[in-house]
Every structure is written in C-alpha cells, then in structure tokens.
Amino acid sequence: MIGRLNHVAIAVKDLAASTALYRDTLGARVSQPLPQPEHGVTVVFVELPNTKVELLEPMGADSPIAKFLERNPDGGIHHICYEVDDILAARDRLKAQGARVLGSGEPRIGAHGKPVLFLHPKDFCGTLVELEQA
Amino acid sequence: MIGRLNHVAIAVKDLAASTALYRDTLGARVSQPLPQPEHGVTVVFVELPNTKVELLEPMGADSPIAKFLERNPDGGIHHICYEVDDILAARDRLKAQGARVLGSGEPRIGAHGKPVLFLHPKDFCGTLVELEQA
C-alpha cells in the first residue's frame, strides 16, 4: 500500500540557521522559505536526489510543532510521510485494522496541495506518520 | 555534498510486531530479520520504491539503541542516513566547519558493508545523522 517516502520533516527553532546548515555545511540544494499559515509553519525544502527533507519552523505559539520544540529544544525529526495511491482506501484499510487516524479522519490539503492524513504515533512504532495522496 | 537519503532508521522494541505492521497494515515489502551482532541490532529492511526504512531491534543490553528505547518506549526515529561520494572528504569538510563526528572519527563498516560515520545530533537540528559512502 505505501509507496514512495515523500519526505522526512525536521522541526527546527531557527529556520535560517538550519537552512544554512543544510546548504553550506551539508552541501544540499535548498528552497526559499515558504510560509504556510494554514499549517502554522514556514517550510524549507531540502531537495535530495530521491526524496526531500522538510525543515519546519513554527509560525506562532499555536503552531502544531511548538510543543514538539518545547520537548526537543534542539529540534528533531517530527514526522515521516509516505505516499499512497488512494488516501480514502488507505484510511479505511488502516481503520479496519485498528489504527487511529488523527483529527476528524477526513483528509486535509497538505503542504504540496494534495490530500493528507496523519496516523497516531503509538500505532506506528512511536513515529508520527503522514500519508499523502500520490 | 550529501546525496540520496539512504534510509530512515526506526528503533523498535518488538521487531516481529513492527515488521508485521509494515508488511500487513501498511502493505510494504519487508526483508527477513538480519542479525548484526557487530552493531548490536537486528534489522528488517522495509523496501520503498525510492529508499528504505530500517527497523532496528536491540540485541542485548549493550545495544546502542537500548538507551534510546528506554527514553522512547513506543520506539521512534533513531537516525537518518545520507549518502556521500567520499566519506573522508565529507568528514574533513564537516570538521573544518566545526561539526562533531562521533566516536573515533574514523569510518566503520556499516550495515550495508560500506564505510559510515555518525554526526552529533546537536550540530544537526537535533537529528542523529549517519553518512554512508555511496
């Protein structure tokens, strides 16, 4: 069911410093910062040959990653995103097997303009999993 | 400098259950368990179309992931591995920029039979980074 690893998301406190680290120290290609007020984050995409790393900086105190950064002041891997061909079929299959879908259970439009869902970390090896329609 | 995302490693307490989750619930292709006594772990590879997830179960109390699982009893993402063309050149470039290389600083042979190094999480957005010679 799951397909490509779409991205690994790393929450960071200082997006400019983290972008410079990936660009200058690790020598990767990075995007301009992309504010996403509807998701409460500003994102920089680190473009690797086979996938992306996304650096997420909280936008405001209500940001979904603000609490994560309180617990992890150095930053850290926040979630991992797998692509699926049919997000509603994937959701129904997962729910039938007892996995918990976060929020209302209805897909929202994610950072790439496609429907996404998040799955409960306790059901997936302590890892917050995002599913994105391929 | 960094190239492909070689793998994302997830530490788990129960490798059989986590393998079944990725195979049966998430519908991914998984390998047989591969004991790696020299690294203190047993590994299952989850083969995605563009990269791998590695499920790591500690082998013995001295395992490098045992402490991580004490702090994260549900499991969690342990490290992320980027490929580099020349691991010694990469190491020297990183050290010259002030990044800390873990251990002796000399590459060891990793899980895929290639030289690897680990970088200090505090220097890389709170993320333990493995570099592997491509």
TrEMBL record, chains A, B:
Keyword Lipid metabolism (UniProt): no
Reactions catalysed: (R)-methylmalonyl-CoA = (S)-methylmalonyl-CoA
GO biological process: L-methylmalonyl-CoA metabolic process
Keywords, sorted A to Z: Cobalt, Isomerase, Metal-binding
Broad class of enzyme this protein falls into: isomerase
Gene3D superfamilies listed in its UniProt record: 2,3-Dihydroxybiphenyl 1,2-Dioxygenase, domain 1 (3.10.180.10)
A Pfam family hit: Glyoxalase_4
EC number: 5.1.99.1
GO MF terms, alphabetically ordered: metal ion binding; methylmalonyl-CoA epimerase activity
Domain named VOC: residues: 4-134
NCBIfam families (alphabetical): metmalonyl_epim
Protein family per UniProt: Belongs to the methylmalonyl-CoA epimerase family.
PANTHER family: METHYLMALONYL-COA EPIMERASE, METHYLMALONYL-COA EPIMERASE, MITOCHONDRIAL
Protein name as annotated: methylmalonyl-CoA epimerase
Organism of this sequence: Bosea lupini
